[in-house]
Design a protein that fits this description.
By secondary structure, the chain is mainly alpha-helical. It has two domains: 88-273 and 395-556, no CATH class; 290-393, no CATH class. It is 65% helix and 1% strand. Strands 1-2 form a two-stranded antiparallel sheet. Strand 1 and strand 2 form a beta hairpin. The two termini are 51 Å apart.
Length: 556
Amino acid sequence: MPDKGSIRNLITLRSDISSLMYYTMILLAVSIPLSEFGMSISQFLLLGLWIFEGAEKRDAGSSNHPQISKVKRVIINLACKFRMLFNNPAAMVVVSFYILHLIGIIYTSDLNYALKDLRIKLPLISIPVILATSAPLSIKRFHKLMLFFVFAVFSGTMASMYVLFTRHIADPRELSIFISHIRFSLTICFSVFILMYFLVKKIYTRKPAVYTMIAGVAWLMLFLLILESVTGILITVILGLIFLFYYIFRLRSLALKIIVSLLLLASIIPAYNYLNKTVKEYSTPAPLDFAELDRFTEFGTPYLHDTATYGIENGEYVGLYISMVEMRHEWNQRSSLDFDGKDLKDHDLKHTLIRYLHSKGLRKNALAVRSLSDKEIQHIENGIANSKYVEHFNLTSRLEQMAMGYHNYVRSGDPSASSVMQRVEYWRASAYIIKHNWLTGVGTGDLDDAFNKAYNELDSKLHESFRLRSHNQFLAVFIAFGIFGLLWFIFTLLYPGFKSGKFTNYFYLVFFTIIIMSMLTEDTLETQAGATFFAFFNALLLFGHKRNTDKAEEPG
């Protein structure tokens, strides 16, 4: 029988490995918004520690076999962990989604892309297996890990602000320098509601901590506006409304419920009126009398007045007061890009120039081109077609861009000018692929080929540089694995939460809502950051912290 000293050493060693796993989980959480390299390294470290975590404990009472080899202890330990995994239905369902991708290799034709996809999505199996078979975190450690994640997101926003003030940023999406702006906005949304939980539940009661968290919530919500992330803003607003209505229904006074509900509805009306007014003013031109329009430029060149080709922006026809001859002459003197060629986004440069001049309220002639600064010439060369698009903290311009894209799509069938209309075209192509492959899908690696073929067969007007995949995770799964694959994917999302009773858990409910809403407009799991964000927090909230935290974390 081992003496007390050896047992104490074994317990200490096990405790050290568990602590190292915890610190590695912190590293992984911190890396999600900041570093793809950090995500990879932390997962390898976590896997290595997981292999040895618990092996020492299994030898503590082996009095009959004191010389059992370390290798054998590790093998026995892993066998016990996998037995634990197989006895956990929720965990098995979670990892089965990755197994679905392995099955999809059987009938894929592009094996190289399939293997790349499997590599990107490795977190979907490795992280759930590790967290479901390791010692769960205590409440205190869990809360600290969440705070580390929030601090990492805050650090990411500070890095973005540094970029904003030190570099030329033509598109707010360029502010997210570590991961895609959509995935970054998801981490910001989650961080906002993490801090709100700590404030409402009074987890940290010291005034400096409270004031810091309040400031953190305010800053992160402001940064979503700076990032102009429509997805992030919508998810934050909808989640806020969900919890607000939840607390309203918990009020005991019926009169108070009615009053608060009416006030809430009254606050929604101005927001709707603002959106409606913005779109209406942007897309509805004033009556036009051609007889009152000037016919010649200051240099005597005839104007072209075209109300059909260029559409409507800022409540006016873009195609009024156009002198191609003068613009061509002046532009080619100021830029190395040919007026009749393409801008750096592969759009017709003359169209970009016409729209840019229109956005400044200028006529499209020689004097207007001369008035442009060198910086504005650079904007136009970079494919920026509206002077408002380079203004920061301007959500209105983002809404106007969406309205312009819609009207351009209706008028010409070309969705290239708007990310929203591009998504419509992605979904149209997705529906076409599903129609021809609804039963089994196209396989794990053939999505790119399927979309390229669909765009060609549909004779899509979408520019080749924008011909991407579905931008909807459910459609992506349907296309890859067919109807039964889609149904199983939905099952893997719903069953673990219900089986584990986690839909009453505040953190899980918030995270689940964020993920599901993002999957409606994004291929959330098709990048390393998205797959790791989902895999880590889904597994952590399902299996990675002690069950007695559930009561402490209910929404109400």
